[in-house]
Amino acid sequence: MAIDLKTRVVRLEGGQRREQADNNATVVLDGGLGPLLARASFEELFAANYVAIRKTASSFARPGVCVVAVDTESKRVAGSVCVASKPDRANAAIIGRHSMTDLYLDQDPNLSLRHLALITHPHTDHISSDLRFRLLDLRTPLSYFDENDRRLEALVAEGPIFVRCGRYALFCLITGDVIGWPDDAASGWQCIPERVYLEEADAEPDRWQRRRGRRPGPAGNIGYDEPNKRPTMVQTMNGPARALLAEGDRPLGSLTIRTGDGRTQDLQIGEAAAARGVLLGRYDRCDADGASVLTDENISRVHLLIISVEDKLYAVDTASTNGTWQREPRREIRIAELEPGVELMLGEDLAYLTWTPGARIID
Fold it and tell me: Is the pTM above the cut of 0.85?
């Protein structure tokens, strides 16, 4: 299965069928997450699936990121997504258990329907040596873990990284270089650069203990040449913000939401909140004190991520059931830059979003 061959390629393994997906609520097993994450090591899983990992990553010619998901129980590849880094704007893919996600992982009910967002930063070179990407938890109960079992909300990486999410190991690899992978798994593993964490950002103190009620309702090759190998620099950070405009935050602009039944709401979004990301939807994982007009049951529980990347503000559709559309010219989007005069539509006339930069006085 391929989606947008120029910028995003999706592969499902093991006979998974999206049309049979269970898109019901996430199930969280209290106290059972640690043992699930402590099975085979990344090196063991990498070696066991090296042929598939090498083939998938090297088949994507453009500079970008390839995420290969390995099921830690079966020790087999479950699926992959390759996301190109575009020359002038960010690109994105969504990982989770919903049938509309790009990397669809259906074997773990602990995963949220929309669990992670992968965002590639704009890339202007013809090689991938300076490529950066962000891996962002969409405020889920589980989140994800690094190689040292540290629970993370978000990170920005400048090279390959490995993380665990539920029962899956995610190998995030840089694509687009012309140097090929070695033939054997041991040599391939030795070519992966060391990961250096520049800064550790603690999660909100009670985040992992909170419980919320439900609302009703022809290809180039990748390579890491050993003599030129440089460490992967990883910066951890906090995930999506709770306050759209916190005290002391500089207003970045306002988002006007107009619903199909005529209600209107203005949301003032701060610079710091935009940098972390803001979730919009009808579920309480989103900012319940923000977009309170998004109540139509056809709007997804987590529908949009508003986030700034390299000084530009983007709306990322988080694998919503009914999609997000640019109104003029009409096209469905996974990610779109929020610019004055551009109107986005949630689903079929469910709600309309417009962005106005700069501070405004909102009653």
Answer: yes
